[in-house]
Amino acid sequence: MSVRIRKPLFLSCLLLGLVLLCSTLTYQFSVQHGIDALREQGNRQLELHTRGVESEIERFVWLPGLLQLNPVTLQLLQSPDASHQLEVNRYLAAMNERSGTLAIYVLDSGGRVLASSNWRRSDSYVGEDLSFRPYYTDAMAGRPGRFYGIGSTIGEAGYYLSSPLRVNGRIAGVAVVKVRLGQLEAGWRKAGADVFIADENGVIILASKPRWRLNVIHPLSQERRNQLAQSLQYHWASLPLLQLKSRRTLSPGLDRWELSDPDVAAPEGRLFLAQSRTLNDTRWQLTLLSPLAAVKAAAWTHAMLAATIVAVLTLLLIAWNERRKVIATRLSAREALQAANSELERRIEERTADLSASNERLLAEIRERELAEQTLRKAQNELIQAGKLAVIGQMSTSIAHELNQPLAALRTLSGNTVKFLARGAYDTAAANLKTIGELVERMGKITGSLRSFARRSEHADGQARLETAVDAALFLLQPRLSRHPVTVQREFDDVLLAIDQTRLEQILVNLIGNALDALQGVPAACVRLSGQRDGGRYQLTVADNGGGLPEQVRQHLFEPFFTTKPQGSGLGLGLTLSASLAAAANGTLQAQPLPQGAAFVLQLPLCPEQELHHV
């Protein structure tokens, strides 16, 4: 073989080997990089899904313990007669409808259902023996119960939360709440994610794909299957094994799965990166499956691109080497300079275009945030106005009674005045007219206070006189104060606070009104308003000697729509709005327990002129 033939052959083999080596290395690097990127993305998605599941469960954790506060429920456990059962059934049905749960029911100490929210339905739980359920045994042992299973009555899956019910320190029954978690699956499917949750038995209880549900992710012994069948935790499900063709662990919490899916023809479509995480307060594992098909496809694309680039570069290098022999050095240098200038100009143009686009995006984001801030402020003002009207609505009966008395007196006095004028008794008629004027002035004060309290306040800033605000709040609440003997103690300075006058009045009406609610039926009832300066701020404490605030109530006091009042007596917005109004004025509102009663501490900044005057 001549030299002329051997050299091209050697160069061709070298080029082919270089192309294969670069494509192989690029493929491996691209696969590893793609898996790393997919893992990071999966970790973020896994965190979001985990927080979503945990927050969905935490919404209902407090519900079973709430039944401990219902005296009729405790009476039913002590004496299970028909009247108590009917009242508890109605209470549970109303609570179930408001909270959006599947069912709420009460078990006696033997595990039999005494009352249930579905007592009207043909598949009611009332009378069933559920002592075999783990949530019953956990609650009877004094622990909160957590259990996922399929109902033994109609086969409806749900998450069960239980809590012991104590009477005189003894566990006399169990409160159970059944929660629907199917909305999580709908959210996963809407997001296009392949997600499932397996319980402590390895059984998939929630999944984005319905065919995965009630499959097991690892083999179960026949003895364990018999135990689960006897417990009826999964009703009569056969619990088939999830069809995994292969499973390889890459790192702790990270696996490579290949599913046996007949619906997917390409083998690459059955490969997934499986990432798992244990949920808080449970033994459940949430698993996210990220498809590897895109990573494989991208790796092949990068490998082909690398091979093409290497081949082109090599050919260009050979061509340039041949061309270099025939082109003068000056021409080569000039062309190189022109190429450099062109590249620099292109980069400048690209950089300028990128900066312009970034500037436009920033301006758009600023406009969107300003619009969102205006919308939020408007919504907050509307909610504040709704809170005012709710307070006025709650006082409507007392205000109507307060106005009816002067109206009746006006009707009597006006009729008598006509008669006295006809008889010529002008002195008596003049006295009646004077009394009528005083009654009209009194009615005007009532309606004027209501108008001032209901007036819309669009701004959080302003100035408010504390003593004026307290007088206005007590005047609005005077009908309630007159019906029940309550002593009001005032121990504060008449300071000028940096908050709108009507907003301060609304906060005080809510706090004093809540104190009056807590004092119903309390002997020697007393509301104490005390204040003290704290640097450039003023701290006003509204305290009562009522029943106090239990820990489970105090944790949810400032949540919207949370209330301990009877149904129809409040919206649960008073403290939420009061805290929001205080925060808008750079202040705070906190609740503090007392040995007897409760106290709410309102702290607001003093006006600058008030601070100078104090100094």
Task: Please outline what is shown here.
This protein has helices spanning 3-58, 63-66, 71-78, 82-99, 134-140, 182-191, 222-231, 293-324, 329-394, 396-423, 426-454, 466-476, 478-483, 501-518, 551-554, 574-584, 608-614, and strands at 103-108, 113-116, 145-150, 157-167, 170-179, 194-198, 204-207, 244-251, 254-259, 271-278, 285-291, 464-465, 486-491, 496-497, 525-534, 537-544, 588-593, 598-605. Helix 1 (3-58) runs antiparallel to helix 8.
Provide the residue-averaged pLDDT: 80
Task: Count all strands and give the number.
Answer: 18
Instruction: Kindly provide the radius of gyration, computed on alpha-carbon positions and rounded to a whole number of angstroms.
Output: 38 Å
CATH class of one domain: Alpha Beta
Measure the end-to-end span: 108 Å
The CATH superfamily of one domain turns out to be Histidine kinase-like ATPase, C-terminal domain
Can you tell me the CATH architecture of one domain?
2-Layer Sandwich
Largest sheet strand order: 7-6-11-10-9-8
CATH topology of one domain: Heat Shock Protein 90
Principal-axes geometry comes out as flat
| Main sheet specs | 6 strands, antiparallel
Helix content: 40-55%
Per DSSP, the total helix count is 17
Secondary-structure-based class equals: alpha+beta
Beta fraction: 15-25%
Low-confidence parts: none
